[in-house]
Amino acid sequence: MINNINKNLNELIEILKENNLLEKINENINYGSYLIGYLSYDSKDITKNTLFFCKGQRFKEEYLIDAIKSGAIAYISENTYENIDSSVPHIIVNDIRKAMSIIANHFYNKAYENFKLVGITGTKGKTTTTFYIKNILDEYSKTNTAYISTIRTYTGTTDIDSHLTTPETLDLHKYFYETSSNDIPYLTMEVASQGYKVGRVDQVTFDVGVFLNISEDHISPIEHPDIQDYLNCKLKLLENSKVNVVNMDTDYSSIVLAVAKKSGKLYTYGKSSNADYYLGNIVKLESGYSFDVISDKYNYNQNFVTNMQGLFNVENALASIVVAKALGVDDNSIRKGLENTLVEGRMTTFVKGNVATIVDYAHNFLSFEKLYETLRNDYPDHKIVTVFGCPGNKAYTRRRDLGILSAKNSYKIYLTEEDPQYENVSDICRDIITYVEPINQNYVVIEDRETAIISSIEEAITAGEKTVIAITGKGAETMQKVNGRFAYYKSDITVVKETLQ
Question: Considering its fold, how many domains does the chain have in total?
């Protein structure tokens, strides 16, 4: 519920006209007599004076009927609906997603302009980097700053588990408005490629845009047709940011850097001294890493400590430090923010006897590659066991990539469910096996995820050999996507704790 916003429906229609989105309205209705106080695309999220958006390939007329019964006073759609009373104000547009983005931006008065907005894109590392930056900015501003992540969203008003990496545009602008209304000076958010692909962030200008990395992922009929489309969507963040922070070691770095230089002020980071900021003297600690951040260009050399496991998290920390320097944050706030960052489900480690069990969000080629690199370095004399699955109806290349990587790096593999959506788990596992079996025949399929995790731990403990079990994909998430709905799942973290107890 949003207070103190009322927009005349005619005013919103004029915005649609200006952007060549309006197709038709009912000339017999006095649209100017209607005040809109809320925007929604969810028939279960309706309040007084709601303008309802009929969006999505699976949208059903019954959703609109429910929305009107619950209090929606007008609706926007690409189609007319026969069973809806013609006296209900309706607006027909030629692109519902663009209409949502433009209306939300206007309705919430471009609220993102009232605070510093940091956007982070990358195939891997967005969530951890978001929490690093958020905690640094908490220290610097002496307040709880806002954030939107794959795991959770906080605006001072909203504090909820997340279901999308980048929220739908109506939700996103509402979160911006809440952040502004609560006088929070910063918001840090993950920006997925789909955020631009389907227009969720089209109207937004970021103060700082961060490009972590890219590798082939999210290639499917319902996501990106090819890597070029995937890259182009990620590059839009840099095109819409005032300041850009770019990893010089990313794939397609020449293209990324060219766009970043053209679009805004650029800071680079990486492993070599060619970058504006680079790493030195990395030392593994019991709980994380100590490392130096050096800049020849800016005459900078400081030591920092992170309490996150995984060498790749040092790279994420470096990106966060560069963002902080771009925002004028002092080193002491950076240091405290990094040390305070722990992301449950990101390299969360449990040890019992000779068996280490690690729960991690790794779910694509780049994250699996980095995960195995860390396991080989930190557990050199341990057998590696991997528990994983692949999502249904999307990112089909993961079945190949994760199948091959796990086969090459694992002593044993447990294939299981991971957000199967509209596919059968057995079919997904069968696809993965075509890539696993030619390399490694030591695998088992256990469709129930909880059972697969329990079996992997109990077998390793019974064997008594030095073993590290990587349970990947879900981290601390408590939901599975099944048949278009979110089904409760107790989380990998909880299953591991209960099993070890």
Answer: 3
